[in-house]
Design a protein that fits this description.
single chain; 82 residues; mainly alpha; elongated
């Protein structure tokens, strides 16, 4: 049986996930395998599709992985200049 105190605690909990914008740092979590897959594909010049429903963090995932690449490699491979 759920107590009234337990219900009050659940109602007052803050959602730990940010949404609505690109996240990074401490807000970005639990994506080690996906980041590794993206980095391997980027480093090897492979094509890789990132597909999921809206608001599941695709842009944050790709930007996080790109930040792990050496800047020179990023500029060369993706034609981006700072």
């Amino acid at each position: 049986m759920i107590t009234q105190n337990a219900l009050c605690e659940v109602r007052n909990m803050k959602n730990p996930f940010q949404y609505g914008d690109v996240v990074g740092g401490d807000a970005f979590c639990n994506r080690r395998k996906e980041v590794g897959d993206l980095l391997r594909a980027m480093e090897n010049g492979e094509k890789l599709f990132v597909y999921s429903e809206r608001r599941f963090g695709k842009t944050s995932l790709v930007r996080f992985a790109l930040d792990k690449l050496p800047k020179k490699q990023y500029e060369k491979d993706f034609g981006v200049r700072s």
